[in-house]
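Students often ask what a holo structure prediction actually looks like on paper. The answer is less mysterious than it sounds. You provide the chain, you provide the ligand, and the output is a string of discrete structure tokens encoding the 3D arrangement of the protein together with 2-amino-4-mercapto-butyric acid.
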Amino acid sequence: MKPLLQAMKERRLYLDGGMGSMLQAAGLPEGLLPDVWGMENPQAVQGVHRAYLEAGCRLITTNTFGTSAPKLAPYGVTPAQVMTAAVANVRAAMDQAGVTDGYVCADIGPSGKLLRPYGDLDFEAAVGLFAETVRAAAQAGADCILIETMSDLYEMKAAVLAAKENCDLPILASLIFDETGKLLTGGSPRAAVALLEGLGVDVFGLNCGLGPKEMAPVFQALWEDTSTPLLLQPNAGLPRSEGGKAVYDVSPADYARQMRPLAPMATLLGGCCGTTPDHLRALIQATQDIPLPEIPQWDTLLISSYCQAVALDGRDPVIIGERINPTGKKKLQTALREGDMGYVLGEVFQQEEAGAHILDVNVGLPGLDEPAVLTQTVEAIQEVTGLPLQLDTSNPAAMEAALRRYNGKPLVNSVNGKEESLETILPLVKKYGGGLVCLTLDDEGIPADAQGRLAIAEKIVRRAEAMGIPRRELLVDGLTMPVSAGGDNAKVTLETLRRAKEELGVKTALGVSNVSFGLPKREQLNQSFFTMALEQGLDGAIINPKSEAMMGAYRAYRALAGLDDQCQAYME
Ligand code: HCS
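The corresponding structure tokens follow.
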């Protein structure tokens, strides 16, 4: 049999439909976990799997939606026991149906506990819970991991990391949005795209919560942003309560009709609660002639927090606030040494208020336990702001610790052309996701001319792409040198920036204010250099957003460059 990811590209494959709702109809007692009941009633579970196989579904989901240690605790069984029995049930049903081209999707649902700060489950504890189920699934012979019905991107991240770290199976990831187009914890479709593409899941999409009609706008939004194949598994409409039970009103024929317009964007189609083998049969009949989507490859770099994404589209620049960096800042140094998070959060609020889109976080101080302090600082900041962060450290252990805990897809500052840097940072970005700031320096130092800096940039791009990090994720930093130290310094930086964009097709980033180091009236130089850099195509400007001169230059540039329709932002 072909590996799933290959088969998926060759023909339309269908996921199955509701399991819990089917088992209820088959006699599952009220209040009992379907997963546990399924162990004692394998015939019932196999019957549901068989019916979906006979309807034409080939991706069959194990009856393990509730298989996590907290949910199983009252029943005295382990996730491994439930998963092993559930995978065996799918295989048995395939044998009974004579299906030899089916795939077993190991279902992983929410842990049943809320992660901090909403609840008390620690992020690493969540990874541990999911890891146990993933290992059992791989051992039992599942063909892929299907993480589904996640309403919190942080929990999704924990589950995806657990899958990446504990098996080599393809990962399918599915989220539950509400009718307002948001996740329970506030995440937008774009934030979901950023996170899941950054983590490198193989397929992602939507399931449960809504019917096809209500899901359509969110699905369309995913399609417009993503370069990854999508899956779609709505309910049979919105549930309503009848005699204390959830009932679903969309008939198989209506389900198929409502799904048809969405099929050109979906690589995998299926159903969720309330859908039955009849729904899937109708769906397959109505959509199997629709060609598989060509998956677009977008150039936009998406960076995200738990709730929102910032797009770097290569055209409209964004502001990266530089204030959380102790270099030359006595008060911040003291605050970091004393663990005074209040001071750091004050900088967060002020920069957000001033219009920053992304916040740089650097806590590098001699003698400080950087992995611990950076992680704590990131955790504290992401509890109070929806702005995405740029993790800024030269300590790889600190970078990895912060990347794990970060609730979204950050900017990673930075990699450079030194072998050691490439070898440590690129794998981290591949694993956790992140837009990557690429410094144009190497063992020889910083080349004096743009040609030398571009050669380093090109080497980094090549190495990143060879690891599977797309070019759109890279921001080349041409390195701002003090103009006081050499008359050509600003020109070389600007030429590097322009040519990196033109010749390498990457994004660009720059810490702007270093240009005026050692000179009086720094703001005048900073402001002009900033405008010149924007004109050369600067995408991520690392500046002090509390400087009215700099934000003024930014707003003026956007108005003059035709990026601010009717000058609305300029006039604010
Ligand atoms: N696969 C699970 C999802 C519930 S949201 C089920 O019961 O169908």
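The chain has two domains: 13-287, 316-544.
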